Amino acid sequence: MAVDPEGHRALSGGADGSVCLWAIEGEALRPVAEARLAGAVAGVVLGAGEGAWVLDDRGEVSGLGPAGAPVSLARHEGGALALALDAGAGVLTTGGVDGVVRLWGESSGEAIGRLTGHEGPVAALVSAGGRAWSAGWDGTLRAWDLEARRAAGLWRLSGRELSALAWGAEGRRVLCGGHDGSLWLWRDAGGGSADVTALAPRPHGEWVRSLALSGDGRRGVAAAPGEGEVLFLDLAGAPAVHRCPQASPPSVLAFHPDGRRVVVGRFDGSLEVVEPEGEDAEGDARAR
Q: Is residue 281 pLDDT above 70, yes or no?
């Protein structure tokens, strides 16, 4: 799931290879273009203007034309699980089953670099400001300098697989989630150092499938389908988690640029624009 920087479009993809481009109209979503890939959709990104890119699990990276038709740009051999875009640098990155992060020209699809270090598949990627972060099944969060094509940091967060990433505050904050339900907040502490805070564990916490951060990095959301909940995260001070039960398990989500609304996709194929509106007596989040 992705929302463009202007908040006008959303892009979603499914395990059946279907891709849909949506117009965001207030609290409503209107489909404007559809396409189908040869493999399951593994990642989608939207840039400014008309830019849209998709990745299938075979590793095929495609751009979407004005009518939504996919145009093949590149292929991550062996298959891939994650896709990210650094629009300022003009670089697409893919995270492979082979543990390699590969770099591609945004427009040309030309292979321009490869970053190695993960000891297993790369499950999630985010990229901004000439830097990328990757989360792997080896339990590590890694930072990369895209211009120098080298590693810029490594944090071993878990003995279990990591599964989701999100970034905010112009890359000064990164949110990471794991298969065991764990959540971590990475914060740039300046001077080349960083702080990593583990959020309080939830009773019976399970797989974090998708994450999003508001632009200022002060609010986060997580899709926890095994718990049947969207988690609203208050990250302005000491991190706090507010649970919001869902009628159908959430699968993916993305923040609108206004920092309030969240587009939520569910395993039943539905999408909805929601906005948190406070807490109930038990401290759980309410959304409308």
A: no
Predicted pLDDT at 48:
83
Which backbone phi and psi does 227 adopt, to 5 degrees? -95, -5
For residues 153 and 159, the answer to whether their CB atoms sit within 8 Å is: no
Distance between CA atoms of residues 161 and 181, nearest Å: 10
Please compute, for residue 116, the number of CA atoms within 13 A of its CA located in the half-sphere on the CB side: 1
**Structural contact between residues 136 and 177, judged by C-beta atoms closer than 8 angstroms:** no
Residue 83 near residue 94, CB atoms below 8 Å = yes
Give the strand order in the sheet containing 219-224. 210-213, 219-224, 229-234, 240-245
Q: Do the Cβ atoms of 241 and 202 come closer than 8 Å?
A: yes
6: left (phi over 0), alpha (psi -120 to 50) or beta: alpha
CA distances from 278 to 42, 134, 244 (A): 33, 33, 11
Pick the closest to residue 273 from 48, 44, 24, 45 (CA basis). Answer: 24
For residue 90 the two structure tokens come to 């003009």
pLDDT above 80: residue 174: yes
DSSP string, 100-165: -EEEEETTT--EEEEE---SS-EEEEEEETTEEEEEETTSEEEEEETTTTEEEEEEE--SS-EEEE
**pLDDT (tens digit per residue) in 86-114:** 999 999 999 999 999 999 999 999 999 99
Domains of the chain, each with CATH number or no CATH: 170-288 (2.130.10.10)
- CA angle 134-74-138, nearest 5°? 25
pLDDT for the residue numbered 278: 54
Supply the pLDDT for residue 283: 46
